[in-house]
Write a structure and sequence with these properties.
16 helices; four-stranded antiparallel sheet; globular; alpha+beta; 13-stranded mixed sheet
């Protein structure tokens, strides 16, 4: 039986093409273990390819690509989405285990055309430093993972003029959900703590314009060995409570954020070992993972640094009254309504020549207003009540093309939509049969779900785009075949499996865009194959405990498919595999795998070997594990998501694939 008649009424005809193909999206190429790329991939449809120059013998030689530019020893291939090894000052490529420094690190090759709703399209460009002035001016708009424009006008990439005070009033942002908390650990999760990085800064950040890692509260860093990182701390920085940011205070904050005992949600990104920090002198901090970890630098882009005085004296206030070092000082959190921040005239970035941002703080105040309803956020921007509205639908972006007062800007993200099916832990025994799980996945029209989501593309059978370390080209999307699904269920029933007890609970969280029609469509799809379903859309307060290991034991014989969004800003499958598939400890609900419903000792053994590996060996190990979990029908990748915003006309908004909303990357309309 075909599902096409049902889907024709739900598929959207006006999907904004904000990127050409998520399957070719780049990863954040920031790791010191990968080798230089020599052979460039074939053309990607609709995209310009970076072609290497070749000599008379056909060998690749360094030079200017046809659509790209060699910069500081980088050789990038925008079409393949692969970032290449950076040469050091001696024109040698870094090797695994060598000490590396921030300067001369790996470049990122953005692969997506960014679009606005007026039809302007900005092609990808390798992230290069040191471009000539005219090239900076001509190409800046296309150099980032999401340098997006409400007007299409060029942004001058010049030294920021001397700055006196904000020139505009309050920036109002209509966000889709209230923060879970405003603790320093929340700087890793923009969706659940939107705007927090305006107040609480990290040691390192991924630059949204170049895609490279850059210093924030750390001015430099050095990889000592496979598990050790030394960071030089920026001097003269004060927390908003007036205390000095010292190496000791930074170490305290790192240990607080990454503490396994505190079990913050950032533990899902903690990696294979326990992260600890020590001040080694007044200017330097040593960060150590208890196990070798090639992503240690990346992890320092996630956790925020907050006041040691607050942690010592008022730790309970840390969760709702953040004290950081950023360009804005926390104001108030009116629960259920909004939270605010005010311009910090003592921000270190006002006088530093290496401060991040495309502008100095232009707004006197920030206000993040919580509005779960899509229509309400849209109305706020349309009426001028807000200058920025998160995550409009594809239809709303299309309508913005004809609007005079606001625009829609979109760009690729590191976020994916998935359906995770209960398996090992307190799940109903019927789901242990591989034929039953395969039947469930064969019943889902993934293309239809991606279309229904809007501003999304079909993933290649795995939770990440091409270019992710461990991406497996041999893996393909699960096919849509309800007739085969029914045959598998009949076969299982004939063998004594209690198929009649199958009733899959399809559950989503109400703050996820488009979630209600998506879970309803999945339920209808499963029904066509003869699978009974229960459909639920729940608040975060109801949903979140149910997808954490601590809550599984409360629901024996559960048959849940959780439909949810999750991000992977690391560009490495290690994080995805660890958080989604490694066996959690039901008696100790902490650590990276707290949301996993799968437990396989053989998989875990192979995974932890892979997590400690580097270079090509790591890539190959991850590819094998990606195939392993795909064949067991545990999680169905449903869509790779673009993210969009409604923006007041004339406002220039810069963001990367992690979609941070930071005022220093917003240039307001005059």
């Amino acid at each position: 039986m075909s599902l096409e008649p049902m889907l024709t009424s739900t598929r959207k005809e006006t999907i904004i093409q904000s990127s050409l193909n998520h399957a070719s999206k780049t990863h954040l190429g920031m790791l010191p273990q990968f080798q230089a790329l020599e052979d460039l991939s074939a053309d990607t449809p609709g995209q310009a390819r970076s072609r290497a120059n070749r000599n008379a013998d056909g060998q690749v030689v360094r030079g200017e690509p046809a659509f790209g530019r060699r910069c500081r020893g980088h050789h990038c291939d925008p079409a393949s989405g692969i970032s290449c090894m950076a040469e050091n000052a001696a024109s040698r490529f870094f090797r695994p285990g060598e000490a590396t420094r921030r300067r001369g690190r790996v470049a990122v090759c953005p692969t997506h055309f960014n679009t606005n709703s007026k039809g302007a399209r900005f092609p990808p460009w390798p992230a290069c430093r040191g471009l000539k002035r005219e090239n900076q001016m001509n190409n800046l708009r296309s150099r980032g993972h999401g340098l997006l424009w409400a007007t299409g006008s060029a942004l001058a990439f010049a030294a920021v003029a001397s700055y006196a005070a904000p020139t505009h009033g309050t920036l109002v942002v209509a966000v889709n959900q209230e923060p879970q908390d405003l603790a320093a650990q929340g700087t890793y999760k923009e969706i659940n703590a939107t705007g927090l990085r305006n107040v609480v800064e990290t040691l390192i950040a991924v630059d949204p314009v170049t895609g490279e890692m850059r210093g924030v509260l750390a001015t430099d860093w050095e990889r000592v060995d496979g598990s050790t990182l030394h960071l030089t701390i920026r001097q003269g920085v004060k927390f908003h409570d007036g205390t000095d940011m010292t190496a000791e205070s930074v170490a305290k904050s790192i240990n607080w954020v990454w503490s396994p005992e505190k079990a913050f949600t950032i533990q899902e990104y903690a990696g294979p070992g326990e992260i600890t920090a020590t001040a080694i002198d007044e200017n330097s901090v040593e960060v150590v993972s208890s196990k070798a970890d090639p992503l240690l630098e990346f992890r320092m882009t996630l956790g925020g640094i907050s006041s040691a005085a607050q942690l010592d004296n008022s730790p309970e206030e840390h969760f709702d009254t953040p004290v950081g070092t950023g360009p804005y000082v926390f104001g108030e959190w009116a629960k259920g309504q909004y939270w605010t921040a005010t311009y910090n005239p003592d921000w270190w970035g006002l006088s530093a020549d290496d401060a991040y941002g495309t502008t100095k703080p232009a707004y006197s105040d920030l206000k993040f207003v919580f509005r779960a309803e899509d229509a309400t956020r849209v109305a706020m921007v349309q009426s001028g009540e807000a200058q920025l509205g998160m995550f409009p639908s594809a239809d709303e972006c299309a309508r913005a093309a004809d609007a005079a007062d606001y625009d829609c800007v979109t760009g690729p993200s590191t976020t994916y939509l998935y359906g995770r099916l209960d398996h090992s832990l307190h799940a109903h025994p019927v789901l242990a049969d591989p034929r039953v799980r395969e039947a469930v996945f064969l019943s889902v029209d993934i293309t239809g779900i991606a279309d229904l989501q809007g501003m999304a593309s079909v993933p290649q059978g795995q939770l990440g785009p091409k270019g992710t370390i461990g991406f497996n080209d041999a893996v393909q999307p699960y096919t849509y075949d309800p007739e085969r699904a029914m045959a598998l269920l009949a076969e299982a029933k004939a063998d004594g499996v209690d198929v009649d007890a199958l009733n899959v609970e399809v559950v989503g969280r109400d703050t996820t865009p488009r979630i209600k029609p998506i879970v309803e469509a999945i339920g209808a799809m499963l029904n066509i194959s003869g699978i009974e379903t229960t459909i639920k859309v729940q608040t975060p307060q109801e949903f979140n405990p149910r997808v954490r290991i601590a809550g599984y034991a409360d629901e024996p014989n559960r048959q849940m498919m959780q439909v949810h969004v999750k991000g992977n800003p690391s560009g490495d499958y290690g994080l995805l595999l660890h958080s989604n598939y490694a066996c959690p400890d039901i008696n100790d609900p902490k650590g990276p795998s707290r949301s996993s419903v799968y437990c396989d000792a053989d998989f875990d053994a192979r995974l932890f070997e892979a997590l400690a590996s580097f270079g090509d060996d790591r890539n190959e190990r991850m590819k094998e594990l990606v195939q392993y979990v795909h064949d067991r029908h545990l999680i169905v990748p449903l869509a790779l998501l673009d993210r969009g915003y409604l923006v007041k006309a004339g406002t220039e908004f810069t963001f990367g694939t992690d979609h941070r909303i930071q005022a220093v990357y917003l240039k307001p309309a005059e």
